[in-house]
Amino acid sequence: MKKGGGMEGKGTGLALIVMGLTAVVALSLIHIAWKRTDIHDHMLGAVLGIILLAAVLAMVFLFFAMPGNRRPVVFFLTFFVLLTLPGSVFLHARAYTGFSLNAYDLDAPGMPSPLLFLLPYIALVALVFIRLASWSMTFEPEPGSRAIGAQDLRQRLRTLDDGAEFPFTVTPGKRADELIVDWKYADAVWLDLLRLHKISELARLTIRLDESDHTARVREMQSQFNASAGAGGAGLSFKMQWGAITFYETKRETVYGIQIENGRPVARLGYRYGFDIREMRDPLLKLITANGWTFKCVPLPIKWLTG
Prior knowledge:
Structural class: alpha+beta
C-alpha cells in the first residue's frame, strides 16, 4: 500500500461502487421531489435524498482518511441505504407506477398489521448492521503466513507486555482462550481553585482466540471516571462504552492545577494525556495477522451473529 491517500486499500472498488449507487439514488429522490409535485408526500424524496447525499459526502472524507481499509465506507453507506429503503421504494413506486396506499384500507378487517412487515425488516437491518460492522474491521492473515497454534499465539501476544515499548498491558482472561489488553491512558489527581479533581480513563480489548477457524475476535470497552469536590459541592460521573467498534479515535488533552501523587503535591502544574486507538490495536493486529490468523473486531461475542 502506498502512502498519501492513493486509490489502493481493502474494499476500495466496492466502496466506490456503493458511493456511486447511493449518489444516484439520492439524486433520483431529489428529482422526484422537484418534478413530481403532483404526488402526495413528494417532499419526502428531498429529505431522504439530502440525507443520502450528506452520507456520501461524509464517506468521501472517510474514504481518504482510511486509505488502507475502505470497508467502513461500505458499511456506513449500506446502513444508511437500508434505513431509507422503505421510503425510497415507496416514492419511486408512487412516481413511476402509480402505486398508492390510498387504494388499500389498512384499517379494514382482515388486513395484516404493518408491524408484521416492519418488525422483520428492523430485525434484518440489525443483523446486517452487526455483520457488516464486523466485516468492515476484519483483517486477513498476511500473504504467505502460516497459522500457528492458539497457545503459541497466546504466548507471543503475552510477550508484548514484557517491555515498555507499548502503552498497554496484556493479561490472561477468565477463559483459557481469552486475553485482556488494558491501556489506562489517563490517571491523575490535581487541585485547582480549591477544588480537588480526579480522572481515570481506560481502554480495554478482549481477545478470544478461536483455533477452529484461526480467528482472533476482539471486543472493545472504554470507561471514563471523573470526580471533583470542593467548597461548592461534589460532582461524579462515570461512563462505559461496551461493544462498539471504533474505526478511528485520537485525542490529546491537558489539565492544569497542582498535581498530587501518592497523596502529596508534586512540582508540576499540568498533566497531559493522549489516546490513539491505533497505538493499541495496530501492534496486536500486526502480530496476529503475521502469524497466519484473522483479526476481527466484533460488537458481540456470538460467532454465528458476527461471523
